[in-house]
Design brief:
alpha/beta; Rossmann fold; Arc Repressor Mutant, subunit A; 2 domains; five-stranded parallel beta sheet; four-stranded antiparallel beta sheet
Length: about 220
Protein backbone atom coordinates (compact mmCIF):
# COMPACT_ATOMS: atom_id res chain seq x y z
CA UNK A 1 0.00 0.00 0.00
CA UNK A 2 1.31 3.46 -0.86
CA UNK A 3 0.35 6.45 1.30
CA UNK A 4 0.95 10.18 0.97
CA UNK A 5 1.17 12.11 4.25
CA UNK A 6 0.43 15.84 3.84
CA UNK A 7 1.16 17.67 7.08
CA UNK A 8 2.83 21.07 7.61
CA UNK A 9 4.19 20.15 11.06
CA UNK A 10 7.37 18.46 9.84
CA UNK A 11 8.17 16.57 13.03
CA UNK A 12 4.66 15.11 13.19
CA UNK A 13 4.71 14.26 9.48
CA UNK A 14 8.01 12.40 9.76
CA UNK A 15 6.91 10.59 12.94
CA UNK A 16 3.67 9.44 11.31
CA UNK A 17 5.53 8.36 8.16
CA UNK A 18 8.06 6.36 10.17
CA UNK A 19 5.27 4.60 12.05
CA UNK A 20 3.37 3.77 8.87
CA UNK A 21 6.54 2.36 7.30
CA UNK A 22 6.91 0.06 10.31
CA UNK A 23 3.38 -1.13 9.44
CA UNK A 24 4.65 -2.15 6.01
CA UNK A 25 3.38 0.83 4.01
CA UNK A 26 5.31 2.83 1.41
CA UNK A 27 5.05 6.47 2.49
CA UNK A 28 5.85 9.82 0.90
CA UNK A 29 5.68 13.13 2.79
CA UNK A 30 4.91 16.70 1.69
CA UNK A 31 4.48 19.77 3.89
CA UNK A 32 2.08 21.99 1.92
CA UNK A 33 -0.97 21.98 -0.34
CA UNK A 34 0.70 22.67 -3.71
CA UNK A 35 3.22 19.92 -2.99
CA UNK A 36 0.38 17.49 -2.36
CA UNK A 37 -1.22 18.19 -5.74
CA UNK A 38 2.14 17.92 -7.52
CA UNK A 39 2.98 14.60 -5.86
CA UNK A 40 -0.47 13.13 -6.45
CA UNK A 41 -0.24 14.01 -10.14
CA UNK A 42 2.91 11.90 -10.45
CA UNK A 43 2.27 8.87 -8.23
CA UNK A 44 -0.57 6.45 -7.57
CA UNK A 45 -1.56 6.51 -3.90
CA UNK A 46 -4.00 4.21 -2.17
CA UNK A 47 -4.65 6.66 0.68
CA UNK A 48 -3.79 10.32 1.22
CA UNK A 49 -3.58 11.49 4.85
CA UNK A 50 -4.35 15.19 4.51
CA UNK A 51 -4.05 17.87 7.18
CA UNK A 52 -6.84 20.41 6.74
CA UNK A 53 -4.87 23.52 7.72
CA UNK A 54 -2.09 23.60 5.15
CA UNK A 55 0.10 26.46 3.92
CA UNK A 56 -0.01 27.41 0.25
CA UNK A 57 -3.38 25.80 -0.39
CA UNK A 58 -6.00 24.84 2.19
CA UNK A 59 -6.64 21.15 2.70
CA UNK A 60 -10.25 21.54 1.59
CA UNK A 61 -9.07 22.92 -1.76
CA UNK A 62 -6.52 20.13 -2.15
CA UNK A 63 -9.28 17.62 -1.46
CA UNK A 64 -11.69 19.23 -3.93
CA UNK A 65 -9.04 19.37 -6.63
CA UNK A 66 -8.07 15.71 -6.22
CA UNK A 67 -11.71 14.60 -6.17
CA UNK A 68 -12.50 16.67 -9.28
CA UNK A 69 -9.53 15.21 -11.15
CA UNK A 70 -10.72 11.67 -10.41
CA UNK A 71 -7.63 10.71 -8.40
CA UNK A 72 -8.24 7.16 -7.14
CA UNK A 73 -6.80 7.67 -3.64
CA UNK A 74 -9.06 7.60 -0.61
CA UNK A 75 -8.59 10.73 1.52
CA UNK A 76 -8.35 10.81 5.30
CA UNK A 77 -8.52 14.38 6.59
CA UNK A 78 -6.81 15.46 9.82
CA UNK A 79 -7.52 18.63 11.74
CA UNK A 80 -7.04 20.16 15.17
CA UNK A 81 -10.57 21.57 14.92
CA UNK A 82 -13.03 18.86 15.84
CA UNK A 83 -16.41 20.57 15.61
CA UNK A 84 -19.28 19.10 13.63
CA UNK A 85 -19.11 22.01 11.16
CA UNK A 86 -15.43 21.30 10.51
CA UNK A 87 -16.13 17.64 9.89
CA UNK A 88 -19.02 18.42 7.57
CA UNK A 89 -16.86 20.90 5.62
CA UNK A 90 -14.03 18.39 5.24
CA UNK A 91 -16.29 15.57 4.13
CA UNK A 92 -18.13 17.94 1.82
CA UNK A 93 -14.85 18.80 0.12
CA UNK A 94 -14.45 15.15 -0.86
CA UNK A 95 -12.72 13.49 2.10
CA UNK A 96 -13.62 9.85 2.71
CA UNK A 97 -12.94 9.92 6.44
CA UNK A 98 -12.08 12.39 9.17
CA UNK A 99 -9.78 12.11 12.21
CA UNK A 100 -9.42 14.95 14.74
CA UNK A 101 -6.08 15.74 16.37
CA UNK A 102 -4.68 14.55 18.68
CA UNK A 103 -5.25 10.98 17.55
CA UNK A 104 -4.10 7.54 18.60
CA UNK A 105 -1.65 6.11 16.08
CA UNK A 106 -3.35 2.70 16.17
CA UNK A 107 -6.62 4.35 15.10
CA UNK A 108 -4.86 6.16 12.25
CA UNK A 109 -3.46 2.86 10.98
CA UNK A 110 -6.86 1.16 11.27
CA UNK A 111 -8.60 3.94 9.36
CA UNK A 112 -5.97 3.92 6.60
CA UNK A 113 -6.32 0.16 6.15
CA UNK A 114 -10.13 0.45 6.16
CA UNK A 115 -10.01 3.12 3.44
CA UNK A 116 -7.64 1.03 1.34
CA UNK A 117 -10.00 -1.95 1.59
CA UNK A 118 -12.93 0.25 0.63
CA UNK A 119 -11.05 1.30 -2.52
CA UNK A 120 -10.88 -2.38 -3.55
CA UNK A 121 -14.37 -3.59 -2.69
CA UNK A 122 -14.20 -6.63 -4.97
CA UNK A 123 -11.37 -8.14 -2.94
CA UNK A 124 -12.03 -10.45 0.02
CA UNK A 125 -10.80 -9.47 3.47
CA UNK A 126 -8.29 -12.35 3.43
CA UNK A 127 -6.46 -13.19 0.19
CA UNK A 128 -6.21 -16.91 -0.55
CA UNK A 129 -4.59 -18.82 -3.41
CA UNK A 130 -4.39 -22.58 -2.92
CA UNK A 131 -2.59 -23.23 0.37
CA UNK A 132 -1.34 -19.61 0.52
CA UNK A 133 -3.26 -17.26 2.83
CA UNK A 134 -2.55 -13.55 3.46
CA UNK A 135 -4.39 -11.37 5.96
CA UNK A 136 -3.64 -7.65 5.36
CA UNK A 137 -5.23 -6.62 8.67
CA UNK A 138 -3.07 -8.82 10.90
CA UNK A 139 -0.04 -8.71 8.58
CA UNK A 140 0.19 -12.50 8.63
CA UNK A 141 0.87 -14.72 5.61
CA UNK A 142 0.86 -18.50 5.82
CA UNK A 143 1.43 -21.40 3.46
CA UNK A 144 0.07 -24.81 4.29
CA UNK A 145 -0.65 -23.47 7.77
CA UNK A 146 2.92 -22.33 8.43
CA UNK A 147 3.58 -18.64 9.01
CA UNK A 148 5.93 -17.06 6.49
CA UNK A 149 8.75 -14.83 7.87
CA UNK A 150 8.27 -12.01 5.36
CA UNK A 151 9.86 -8.57 5.46
CA UNK A 152 7.51 -5.58 5.02
CA UNK A 153 8.45 -5.24 1.33
CA UNK A 154 8.06 -8.96 0.67
CA UNK A 155 4.63 -8.86 2.31
CA UNK A 156 3.64 -5.81 0.23
CA UNK A 157 4.72 -7.47 -3.03
CA UNK A 158 2.89 -10.69 -2.17
CA UNK A 159 -0.25 -8.76 -1.23
CA UNK A 160 -0.24 -6.89 -4.55
CA UNK A 161 0.32 -10.08 -6.56
CA UNK A 162 -2.51 -11.87 -4.75
CA UNK A 163 -4.82 -8.87 -5.14
CA UNK A 164 -4.26 -9.01 -8.91
CA UNK A 165 -6.10 -12.37 -8.87
CA UNK A 166 -3.93 -14.05 -11.48
CA UNK A 167 -3.31 -10.98 -13.65
CA UNK A 168 0.24 -9.95 -14.51
CA UNK A 169 1.76 -7.17 -12.39
CA UNK A 170 4.70 -5.37 -13.96
CA UNK A 171 7.92 -4.55 -12.12
CA UNK A 172 7.08 -0.88 -12.61
CA UNK A 173 3.70 -1.35 -10.89
CA UNK A 174 5.32 -3.15 -7.98
CA UNK A 175 7.90 -0.39 -7.60
CA UNK A 176 5.20 2.29 -7.75
CA UNK A 177 2.88 0.67 -5.21
CA UNK A 178 5.30 -0.95 -2.75
CA UNK A 179 8.20 1.53 -2.56
CA UNK A 180 8.33 5.27 -1.90
CA UNK A 181 9.66 8.06 -4.09
CA UNK A 182 13.26 7.44 -3.04
CA UNK A 183 13.39 4.02 -4.71
CA UNK A 184 15.76 3.96 -7.69
CA UNK A 185 13.80 2.73 -10.73
CA UNK A 186 17.04 1.54 -12.36
CA UNK A 187 18.03 -0.88 -9.60
CA UNK A 188 17.23 -4.57 -9.29
CA UNK A 189 15.18 -3.92 -6.14
CA UNK A 190 11.98 -5.58 -7.38
CA UNK A 191 13.78 -8.55 -8.91
CA UNK A 192 15.77 -9.18 -5.72
CA UNK A 193 12.68 -8.88 -3.51
CA UNK A 194 10.68 -11.28 -5.70
CA UNK A 195 13.60 -13.73 -5.64
CA UNK A 196 13.70 -13.66 -1.82
CA UNK A 197 9.92 -14.03 -1.69
CA UNK A 198 10.05 -17.09 -3.94
CA UNK A 199 12.55 -18.77 -1.63
CA UNK A 200 10.40 -18.10 1.42
CA UNK A 201 7.23 -19.36 -0.30
CA UNK A 202 8.94 -22.67 -1.05
CA UNK A 203 7.74 -25.44 -3.38
CA UNK A 204 5.82 -25.89 -5.51
CA UNK A 205 6.64 -22.45 -6.98
CA UNK A 206 3.81 -19.90 -6.93
CA UNK A 207 5.24 -16.79 -8.58
CA UNK A 208 5.60 -16.96 -12.35
CA UNK A 209 7.79 -14.59 -14.34
CA UNK A 210 6.09 -13.48 -17.54
CA UNK A 211 8.83 -12.40 -19.98
CA UNK A 212 8.73 -8.71 -20.91
CA UNK A 213 5.60 -8.26 -18.76
CA UNK A 214 6.09 -8.92 -15.05
CA UNK A 215 4.97 -11.41 -12.44
CA UNK A 216 1.81 -13.26 -11.48
CA UNK A 217 0.55 -15.87 -9.04
Amino acid sequence: MRVLVVEDHEELALTVAAGLRREGMAVDVVLDGPGALERASVHHYDVIVLDRDLPGLHGDEVCRSLAASGHPARMLMLTAAGTIDDRVAGLGAGADDYLPKPFAFAELVARIRALARRAQQALPTVLVRGDLRLDPATRIATRNGHRLPLSPKEFAVLELLLAAQGAVVSAEQLLERCWDEFADPFTQTVKVTVSRLRRKLGDPPLIETVPQAGYRI
